[in-house]
Amino acid sequence: MTHAKKSLLMLSLLGSGLFTGCNTTSLQQSSNLSSSTVSKYSLDFNPQNYSVQSVEVDGKKIAVRAYENIVYVANPVDTDYQIMNIYIPEDYFHDKSIGAYNAATAPIFFPNQVGGYMPGKPATLNGRGGMGGGMPPMSSRDNTAGQTNTQTNRSGSQTNSVATALSRGYIVASAGARGRTTQNAQGIYTGKAPAAIVDLKAAVSYLHFNDARMPGDANKIISNGTSAGGALSALLGATGDHPEYRPYLTALGAAPASNAIFAVSAYCPISNLDHADSAYEWQFKGINTYKNIKMSMLDYNVQRQTSDGTLTSDQIQYSQLLAQTFPAYLNGLKLHDTHQQLLQLDTQGEGSFKNYVKQFVINSAQKALAQGTDLSVFSWLTVKDGKVVDLDFDQYLHYLGRMKTPGAFDGRDLSTGENQLFGTEKIDKQHFTDFAQTHNNAANATQADAQIVKLMNPNPYIGLAQSNTASHWRIRHGSKDSDTSLAIPVILATLLENKGYDVDFALAWDKPHSGDYDLTELFSWMDQISQQTSKK
Ligand code: DHB
């Protein structure tokens, strides 16, 4: 909808008293729960169905209308997760502006809290909101020896991204999504791939469908997520409106509206799962010790239990086999750098692509140095006259450390979280690559449908004629993150750049696997992309 048209509509709604309706702290959903024979839940946003909440940011209290637990599809399978929380600054109901935005122009911040491809709840205003999501156990691999226990939030920041967004004039809409362990009362798995991305798309459609009924501009939806949530954020951006998702959306009774978004923020996306095993071994082959980190949740705090191990000779052999397959895949992508130099690897895994990856680490160190970080402890960096001029890649990899055993994602024994993601209604865990199926060592292992594996990978959809791919992308990955290979975010960013999208990609210096650690910079970028485009 055009801004002018939306302004008019907002004015008429204000005039009608619809946006100044009574406050209610009672349970939501009177309209959404109304049943009909066709659809169980209404897809019409009800502006009057809110509670008054507030949040404090930098000592300033912000009044907010909270629309919580909105079921965003007409025929949900799981109303614990297929729900969305929408938070709107009270000012927008009084014809006021916040910074550069007003009720017609405010962008919609769309953070998800998915972690580990587990079911994810929508973010809340003062609760777990925007802390980078819940971190579930990632692996059923047993860790027994040498355990240490640390508690961290996934976010390096104390500030909640939901509160930050509202303080800066954004509308916040956060959707829950089904995940790999979701089951119904009959024991049928209902959250296997591609359920999570279908759910987030359906929530986006709800926002487009209701664009005229609520403040905010559905043409400015900016998604955010970390890790599995980062991968889903990237998937949303890559695959907007692609017809291959349509049958799933139709089955859920998703709103008949676009599911495209304006921009993507993705922290350490665990994406491109079907090539992530070979990318991991390309990077870590030769590093035969590992620190497996098993994650679990306690009171929404992430527990990271580490256990040390050494690869068996069988695992070392499998690492080499996987690593050998990576150059052919990478070369086939025909990526190039900003000087149009082709990025390639030889059969040993050496070449321009490796130098290109290395340069991102150097750039990250350079930025940290410029900000006053003492780099002298990183003996593998060469710093001359205030410039980071080189790094020893092998030593860098030792600092980084291997976390996963080969195959890191498609486990030969079906023991990973990703094996569980690619199960079916009746089968909990499956392989999702030909390679792991061929080298399988679990009993009765089956393999996921190739089309379903494709639906979980953003890369093949970027820039297709049938995809409405997001225009703006911000991708961050920690330089001390070994949950996936650096090649994974580098390939994603470069594919996008090569196809002409606006990409801000960097490695965050010395950051482990985490997100939302640089909210000031994230929101500056969001403001810049939201305000630079011409008014529609
Ligand atoms: C996440 C981490 C992983 O190592 C992985 O394989 C999948 C997901 C996560 O933190 O969401």
UniProtKB/TrEMBL annotation:
<dbReference type="InterPro" id="IPR029058">
    <property type="entry name" value="AB_hydrolase_fold"/>
</dbReference>
<keyword id="KW-0732">Signal</keyword>
<dbReference type="InterPro" id="IPR049492">
    <property type="entry name" value="BD-FAE-like_dom"/>
</dbReference>
<feature type="region of interest" description="Disordered">
    <location>
        <begin position="128"/>
        <end position="160"/>
    </location>
</feature>
<keyword id="KW-0378">Hydrolase</keyword>
<dbReference type="GO" id="GO:0016787">
    <property type="term" value="F:hydrolase activity"/>
</dbReference>
<dbReference type="Pfam" id="PF20434">
    <property type="entry name" value="BD-FAE"/>
</dbReference>
<feature type="domain" description="BD-FAE-like">
    <location>
        <begin position="148"/>
        <end position="281"/>
    </location>
</feature>
<feature type="signal peptide">
    <location>
        <begin position="1"/>
        <end position="21"/>
    </location>
</feature>
<dbReference type="InterPro" id="IPR048124">
    <property type="entry name" value="Tannase_B"/>
</dbReference>
<protein>
    <submittedName>
        <fullName>Alpha/beta hydrolase</fullName>
    </submittedName>
</protein>
<feature type="compositionally biased region" description="Polar residues">
    <location>
        <begin position="142"/>
        <end position="160"/>
    </location>
</feature>
